[in-house]
Design brief:
Radius of gyration: 12 Å
Mean pLDDT: 94
Structural class: alpha+beta
Distance between the termini: 14 Å
CATH class: Alpha Beta
Low-confidence stretches: none
Order of helices and strands: HEHEHEHEH
Strand content: 5-15%
């Protein structure tokens, strides 16, 4: 299984475990509250959304993955979303390790 598929599987598992939040407004609130550990941001999202999320993630020191499209992210979690925040340390650490391998 390739790394991309492993990341998708982890995102789906995190959703079923209730360890993600989705959508611009909820993700922004989660980042500001310090609960966000990792962010998936669609590479085909609007420039405003990309700038907002990358600026917030830099300020709050949250890792961002912009490898996937909106369609790919939506398939991974079963919802049509452009931004996904992972709220669990365990899931986030595994996702970061898969990205750096």
């Amino acid at each position: 299984m390739d790394k991309k598929q492993q990341l998708f599987n982890l995102a789906g598992l995190a959703k079923r475990a209730g360890k993600i939040t989705t959508g611009e407004e909820l993700v922004t609130k989660a980042i500001q509250s310090g609960r966000t550990k990792f962010i998936f941001l669609a590479n085909d999202a609007s420039q405003n959304l990309i700038k907002k999320m990358t600026d917030k993630s830099k300020f709050y020191e949250v890792t961002v993955c912009q490898t996937f499209s909106e369609i790919e992210l939506s398939q991974a979690i079963g919802q049509n979303r452009k931004v996904i925040a992972v709220l669990d340390d365990g899931f986030a650490k595994k996702m970061e390790s898969l990205m750096t391998e």
